[in-house]
Amino acid sequence: MAAPYPHGAARRAGRHGTLLFGTGTAWLVTMYRFPGRGLLDRLLVLPLAMPTYIVAYCYVELLDFSGPVQRALRALFGWRTVKDYWFPDVRTLTGAILVLSAVLYPYVYLSARASFVQQSICVLEVARTLGRTSAGAFWSVALPLARPALAAGVALALMECLNDLGAVQYLGVSTLTVSIYATWLQRSSLAGAAQIALVALLFVLALLVAERAARGKSQFHHTTGRYRSIPFSDLEGWRGYAAAAACCLPVIAGFLAPFVVLLVQASAHMSDALASGFWRAIRNSVGIAALAAGTTVALGLGLAYARRLAPTAFVRSVVQAAGLGYAMPGTVLALGLIIPLAALDNHVDAALRSHFGISSGLLLSGSLFVIVLAYAIRFLAVSLGALEAGLERLSPNLDAVAFVARAHAAAGSGAGRRGATGVRRRHEGAARHAASAPVQLRDAGDARL
Question: Do residues 232 and 32 lie in contact, with contact meaning Cβ atoms separated by under 8 Å?
Answer without folding.
Answer: yes
